[in-house]
Amino acid sequence: MGIGKKTKNIGKIAEGKTKETAGKAVGNESLEGKGRAQKAKGKVKQVIEKSKDTFRH
Does the N terminus or the C terminus of the chain have fewer Cβ atoms within 10 A? Predict the structure, then answer.
């Protein structure tokens, strides 16, 4: 996996976690949901990149 893609995916996960936490803190369910979705998307992309690496080697 390229270091750039790995960093970008980790950034998406962290950003999603931040949004989710902020949404919980202020009681904003919409922001909380968007954060959960973004976090999940980052994790899925991370798994895809890892599987690509597995098939390359």
Answer: C
